[in-house]
Amino acid sequence: MPNKRLREIPAVDEVLKSAKMQEYARLYSKNLITQEVRDILSKMRTDIIAGQKTDVNTIEKLVISHIEDILKPSIKKIINASGTILHTNLGRAILCDSAVEAVKICASHPVNLEFDIGRGERGERDSHIEDIVCRLTGAEAATIVNNNAAAVFLTLNTLAEDREVIISRGELIEIGGSFRIPEVIQKSGCKLIEVGTTNRTHLSDYISAISPDTAAILKAHTSNYRVVGFTASVDMRELAAMGSRHAIPVIEDLGSGSLVDLSRFGLPREPVVRDSVEAGIDIVTFSGDKLLGGPQAGIIIGRRKYIQKINKNPLKRALRVDKITIAALEATLKLYLNPDTLHRELPTLRFLTRPIAEIVLVAEKAARLLKQRLAQGYIVTIEDGESQIGSGSLPDEVIATKVVSITHKEILPEKIFEMFLKNEPPILGRVHTEKFLLDIRMIENAQEVVIGD
Ligand SMILES: *Cc1c(COP(=O)(O)O)cnc(C)c1O
């Protein structure tokens, strides 16, 4: 029997002869179509031999649907109703309008990335952001790399390769995506010297660990957890002064770091980059796409002599950012020159500070539309909820929000979650306390969270 069925499989050329396939070969590439036909016929052969059902009449349809799948963009828009504002899996910060414009220009034209137009000669890629970063942070100099992980790595490798780096045991952190401070220290070629205990580290612990081989003291912001209770850590001012007395640079990995004091917007306080600079920390590193609200980038600021050294490290070349990142970062940073309009212009801050009354309006409309759209048996209500900042920023702080809760007596919330995710564009909610929830904080238009037919 299989032999007879195998003989039913047409030859590749025969399939390609049909009008539909000819049309596809003209639209796309003949090679692409031929390869697809070959793959499908060969799979059919394997299926027949394995005794599985196949239908030679579906060949054409299969080829077309495969080609369409291949041509569809893999990266696409998602509706973030998860309640996590800076969601690492969803690409963290959304760019402001002026950054999107700058990216467009950079993507479609030659630009002065490394060209000094005034002098008509080669320029510096970092020059587009260094002045503004220094203005906003009070630092002497700045440089930029791919992300904050790269910033920490490059700083340590430059200042402390083959030598010792002292860090408190309370700061040996792991960030999501397997960034572990002890491993980064090791991979950057430095020797880790742990001091103090998990909950308490004193200035004297650092001092007694100093040796002729000490190259740096590292302070890492414990961004995604808190140690509470009987705790002690060394004030950054004291640590910086001690480092300076011993001529040892003090480096701080601030993680998110904020360029403005968020408490002025009624938000919980996250460390402000300028405070670290003013406290005398020699080098501070932070992310471009966390609270700053820009593109993925790692910003390294501090004393000019150290930044110069970092820029001379051959690894800087390997970790440098592209024109698109620089354009987006420059535009984002420029918004900070006017703190009074920042909460309107910068999407991250706009979402964080969105008035609850506005969220309520959208939630009510979304609930109404969903009630109309969903079949009988679904219960749609509006409830109080909590949004979180995400990306390790302010881990134990939440912001009051409104959520649309959707439940069904016979359908598990996980199934409802899947149903919304299958929408085009996919809608990401979350399951919490046996309910499927849509956080409305980031939803500007109620229609966005209403699943299609
Ligand atoms: C997020 C974070 C990092 C990693 O930054 P990326 O920009 O994601 O590479 C490093 N250290 C701390 C303390 C962080 O919070």
Annotation keywords:
globular, binds pyridoxal-5'-phosphate, alpha/beta, four-stranded antiparallel β-sheet, Aspartate Aminotransferase, domain 1, 453 residues, seven-stranded mixed β-sheet, 19 helices, Aspartate Aminotransferase, domain 2
**Distance between the first and last residues' Cα:** 43 Å
Strand content: 15-25%
Biggest sheet, strands in spatial order? 4-12-11-10-9-5-8
Level of helix content?
Answer: 40-55%
Give the SSE map:
Layout: H1 2-8, H2 12-16, H3 19-27, H4 30-49, H5 59-71, E1 79-80, H6 97-108, E2 115-116, E3 121-122, H7 127-137, E4 141-145, H8 148-160, E5 164-168, E6 174-175, E7 179-180, H9 181-187, E8 191-195, H10 203-209, E9 214-220, H11 236-245, E10 250-255, H12 273-278, E11 283-287, E12 298-302, H13 304-312, H14 314-319, H15 323-335, H16 342-345, H17 347-352, H18 356-373, E13 378-387, E14 399-408, H19 413-421, E15 427-428, E16 430-432, E17 435-439
Parallel strand pairs: 1-15, 5-8, 5-9, 9-10, 10-11
Antiparallel strand pairs: 2-3, 4-12, 6-7, 11-12, 13-14, 14-17, 16-17
This protein binds pyridoxal-5'-phosphate (PLP).
Question: What would you say this structure looks like, in words?
Answer:
This protein is an alpha/beta fold. Helix content is 41%, strand content 17%. A 7-stranded mixed β-sheet has the order 4-12-11-10-9-5-8, sandwiched between helices. Strand 10 (250-255), helix 12 (273-278) and strand 11 (283-287) form a beta-alpha-beta unit. Helix 3 packs across helix 4 (30-49), helix 4 crosses helix 5 (59-71) and helix 6 (97-108) packs antiparallel against helix 15. It is globular, with a radius of gyration of 28 Å. It binds pyridoxal-5'-phosphate.
